[in-house]
Amino acid sequence: MNVIDFLSATADYLVADRPDVYDKETAVEELSCAMDALREYDDKPVATISFTSYLLTRIVEDEGLEEFILSRKVASLGLFLPEEDCRAYAHVDGIRLPHVLDDEYEV
Known about the structure:
Blueprint: H1 3-17, H2 24-39, E1 46-51, E2 54-60, E3 66-72, E4 75-80, E5 85-90
Antiparallel strand pairs: 1-2, 2-3, 4-5
Helix pairs in contact: 1-2
């Protein structure tokens, strides 16, 4: 397996999970751009980018290992310190929180 295999298989997952957002070409492009953007943070051992319902994390180990991890957002908590506001919401069904796409949380 190689990077192209990772991009292709992961894009297939994105298309199956979010057909409302992705086709194969768009998913591969978004993953590839996210990987490139994470590589710009050479000075950080861990960096994460958030897009749609996912997080892509890059971890660089001292031993020369570079690892990318795609995670699905399940729930989020936003603390807006200047406004003293706190918002908790779900990204998937089955969690007793307002969904992130509910009107109340639109920006």
